[in-house]
Each structure stands twice: as C-alpha cells, then as structure tokens.
Amino acid sequence: MQYSQFAQKFKKQTGIGQLMEDLGSPPPGACMLGGGNPALIPEVAEVWKEIVSKQIESASLNRILGSYESPAGIQELREYVASILSEESGTRIDENQIAITNGSQNAFYLLLNFFSGKFENERSKKILFPILPEYIGYTDQTLEADSFLSFQPKIQEIDSFYYKYYIDKENFDAVSDWKEQAGCICVSRPTNPTGNVITDAELEFLISKAKEADIPLLVDNAYGYPFPGVVFEKSSFLHKPGMIQGFSLSKLGLPGVRTGFVLGDPETIELIHKANSVINLTSASPGQYIALELFRSGKWKYLCKNVILPYYKRKSEFAREAILQNWSSNLDYRIHQSEGAFFLWIWVKNLKLTVSELYPILKEEGVIIVPGKTFFPGADPSWSHREECFRLSFVREEKEIEEGIIRIGRVLERFSK
C-alpha cells in the first residue's frame, strides 16, 4: 500500500508519538519517571467529582453528551476565560480573542502550521525557538520538513549541582536573516522538559523581537499562568499585541478531557474556529462544561494557589534531595534550576555512552526516563549537549521516585569516565 508524504510523517515519528508508545509498554515493576501525566491529587479530584455529580443530578448530561457545540465552543466559557485572563494580565481581553480546542497539543498543531511552511510567492517560513531545549510535542507537528530555526542557550552553572539556561540575545544578531526565515517565535513557559521559566525581561525581549519582525510570539502556558500556575519562582503573566498564548486543563488534573484555550488576535482566533470545524466539527463538550463550572465557581484560583502549586513544589524538592543524597560524588552532573512544571532536567558530563545509548540499559534496570536528544528541534546535530541530558518526572509516589533515582545513579556510575 502506498501512503502520502503526510502519512509517512507518522511512520518516521521520533517525538511525542514514539514517547507515548514507549510509556505504554513498560517492563514489569519499572519506575515510570518518563511520563508527563499530572498527579491524582485527592483534593483536586474531589472537585471534579462534585462537578460531574452535579451535572448528572441536574440531567444536563443530555446536552453535554448528546449535542454538538459551536466550533467556537461555549460562548459563556469563552467569556469566563477572557475575564480571567483580563484580570490576571491587567489587559482588556474579549471573548472574540478566545478559541477553545481539543487540548493545547491540538491548538499548537494548528498554530505552528499557520505560521510556518509555504507562504505567498512560494516563500518558506520557519518556527523560531529562541532557546533550547523545548517541548518534545512540537517535533513532529509541522506539515513540511525543515520547519525549525533554533538558537542554543547561554548556560550558567549556579553552583556545584545546579545550572540554568538563558536566552542568548546575541543569536539574534549572529543570524542576520532570522527575520526573513521566521514565521513566528515559539516558547513554553515553564518549559517542558527543563522546568525553566524565562524571565520577565526575556519575555519582553522576545515580544520586542517579534514586533520588530512583524511575526507573532507563541507562548505555551500548559504548566504556567494563570492555571495550573505551577511556577515556583516569582514571575508575571502578561499579554500584549502580537502574542498568541495557549492554555490547557490537562495540568490542572484533567488530561483526559482534552480541552485547551488560545488567546490571540481576533483574526487568528477566527482561523482556529474554522480549522476546528473542518478537523473536529467542534471541541469536546465534557471538558468545556467542567471548565465552565470550575471558572464560574471561582474554585480554580484556590486549587492552583493552595493545592496544586504547593504539591508539585514539594515533589520537586523531594526529587532533587533524593538525587543529592543517593548519587555518587564521582558523577559530574548538574540539575537545571527547578522553576516550574513537573520535571527535573539532568545534565551529566563525562559519560562513556550517550544518554540515548543508556536508555535501553536503564529500561532493563527497571527505570524509564526520556533522553534529551528529542527536545532539541532544529539543533546542530553535532552539539554534544543534546546527548548528555535527560528528563525525569517527579509526578509519582515518593517511594517510586527515590527507587528510580537510585537505579539511575547506579547506571550512570557504571558508565562514568
């Protein structure tokens, strides 16, 4: 059977699709430190139970499950989202600036392809990642090949055990034709996989560069403000003209309902509505109605600030302490400064094998991580840093986290130079 070039992309996938397949068939007893699923926090789960129970008792399930909503989504929900984002950013935002999608993954598939690929007069444009590493889920999303332009970060070692990535502003001067090449700038905040939160000053810098090139700045807030707000360091949520931002219910604890939101200019939002009507007919209703009740009640703010954020901050602290206590002092490693999201990002120097080569060995030892190589879309393949890093999830039970970290440490010590 012959397949189109579009279908061939899925045969060759190396990003999120391959990761999800690997996570779906782990060896028995494995410590699953590779996934991105949010934790089942009892206090949060109780809120979902209350909302769904109320919907069942009120007989509103007939509408939720038995009717198509508009491709634009439930208007009242869009109004609530606009109101929340207006209050949090201090900027007036209207419901015609809000789109509802089947999760932020779905939203960024549309956005990345809106602003990359072939343009008028057969010009090709790319997605500019101003700092690497970046989210694995972007890797296979573009319809056309060679769609990424990526800049290496500045690396600042903080002390004997920590470091942080910063945007290297000089890259914008070194790549003289980036304005001609780029159709958009894209960044996640906090970043999956590193837990890096670009500073407010860095965000303002990117806004200025996008304006200078007359292209949009896409900001993925799947882990960030205002919900779920898993940001450990002080920073701000803002919205300015030229920005297009994505949000999701997944990291609030609702990954199964596949509901996301996009904030942008009305023209882009209208494009998303039209694309949604073709690809999905409409966005799924259950998540929209859960979100409507959550936002209407105001409970989202309490959950984010007083339950979800402290929970993940404690998890991050536990995982970092487990590494510091259990890994040999002979290992030359650094942990990226944990500023948000659900992961630790580990950089290990002076290994005999690459992290990709260590992955099957770690799997045999009963621990699943994610090699760093897949988080560097468009990077120079000769950059050795790509193969010295890996992502480790701390969204598991503490016993499993500690055992997995101990197993990783043993393997790394075996293959340390």
CATH architecture assignment name of the largest domain: 3-Layer(aba) Sandwich
CATH topology of the largest domain: Aspartate Aminotransferase, domain 2
* Main beta sheet: 8 strands, mixed
Overall pLDDT confidence: 93
Termini gap: 48 Å
> What shape does the CA trace take?
globular
- Please give the count of helices: 14
The succession of helices and strands, N to C, reads HHEHHHEHEEEEEHHEHEEEHHHEEHEEEH
CATH superfamily of the largest domain: Type I PLP-dependent aspartate aminotransferase-like (Major domain)
Contiguous low-pLDDT stretches (5 residues minimum) are none
- Fraction in beta strands: 15-25%
Which structural class matches the secondary elements? alpha/beta
Q: What's the gyration radius in Å?
A: 21 Å
Total domain count: 2
Protein name: Valine--pyruvate transaminase
GO molecular function, one term: pyridoxal phosphate binding
Keywords: Aminotransferase, Pyridoxal phosphate, Pyruvate, Transferase
Cofactor: pyridoxal 5'-phosphate
